[in-house]
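Propose amino acids for all 314 sites.
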């Protein structure tokens, strides 16, 4: 009777992982031993924050940035499975589900809107980058030479993306349990005191886990606009140094389309967050200007009322 191949055996046969620089010493001659030793996580037994990977190549893939994959094969067509971007996609979904489950179970008195606000705060790129910095994920990243020299180990966007990829690797290697444990321990539990601040603050972006997109959605809906749309208007640069330009637009109550702001970023998420931040600044300035105009009109009306009696008296 044949036995089912192990995860490691199946992964070894998968072409999407063969081009990834593995954790095992000497397996990839394109990376110097010193570089591997400095970047990789506990390669001797592939442990990651208390969890031992059955398939070390999954962890290695989660920590591999596209800049390294690009440098390894600059002339060829980049294999979508040679870096952590696909894992980032899966990790984002796993993270959202686990956070939603945690909030649903821990805070039974909250309504859907408040739960949505808290989830958006916890899974925001800003918060994930802070988590990655706190657990010192940056030094473990496998980057190309150019990205490493430009400080890639400290870039918030790269850290947030890698954290999502690690969550996906935990999920694929051991199922939902290790992914859930990691998310609770490092993302949800440390933020519990900040969550109440996000809920009760009149400023949705106050605290360490605010999210500009969620705040903008609330602001625009409050003034009668539909949900903001984030439109990719331009992208430039090589694959390992992409720049994305995003415009945030809304449909006003009269049906017209209005562009609130635009911004650039090294990822679409980063550009969307910055565009939302600029849009909030613009809306706040507009409110201040309108308030100032109303105050000036009221002052003029008051002055006119004071002059009229004097004319009547004369």
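Proposal:
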């Amino acid at each position: 009777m044949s036995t089912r191949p192990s995860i490691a055996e199946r992964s070894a046969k998968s072409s999407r992982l063969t081009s990834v620089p593995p954790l095992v010493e000497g397996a990839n001659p394109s990376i110097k031993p010193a570089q591997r030793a400095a970047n990789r996580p506990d390669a001797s037994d592939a442990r990651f924050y208390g969890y031992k990977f059955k398939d070390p190549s999954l962890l290695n893939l989660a920590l591999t940035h596209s800049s390294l994959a690009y440098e390894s094969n600059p002339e060829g067509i980049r294999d979508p499975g040679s870096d952590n971007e696909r894992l980032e996609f899966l990790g984002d979904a796993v993270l959202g589900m686990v956070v939603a489950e945690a909030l649903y179970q821990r805070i039974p008195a909250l309504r859907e809107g408040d739960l949505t606000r808290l989830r958006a705060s916890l899974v925001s790129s800003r918060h994930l980058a802070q988590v990655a910095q706190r657990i010192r994920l940056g030094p473990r990243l496998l980057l190309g030479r150019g990205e490493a020299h430009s400080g890639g180990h400290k870039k918030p966007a790269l850290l947030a993306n890698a954290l999502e990829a690690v969550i996906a690797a935990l999920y694929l290697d051991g199922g939902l349990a290790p992914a859930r444990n990691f998310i609770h321990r490092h993302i949800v539990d440390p933020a519990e005191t900040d969550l109440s601040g996000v809920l009760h603050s009149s400023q949705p972006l106050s605290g360490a886990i605010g999210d500009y997109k969620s705040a903008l959605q609330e602001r625009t809906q409050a003034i009668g606009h539909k949900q903001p749309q984030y439109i990719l208007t331009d992208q430039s640069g090589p694959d390992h140094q992409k720049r994305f330009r995003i415009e945030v637009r809304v449909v006003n109550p009269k049906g017209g389309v209005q562009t609130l702001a635009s911004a650039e970023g090294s990822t679409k998420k980063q550009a969307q967050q910055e565009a939302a931040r600029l849009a909030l600044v613009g809306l706040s300035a507009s409110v201040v200007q309108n308030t100032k105009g109303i105050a000036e009109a009221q002052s003029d009306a008051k002055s006119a009322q004071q002059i009229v009696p004097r004319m009547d008296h004369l």
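The chain has 14 helices and five strands. The first strand starts at residue 47 and ends at 48.
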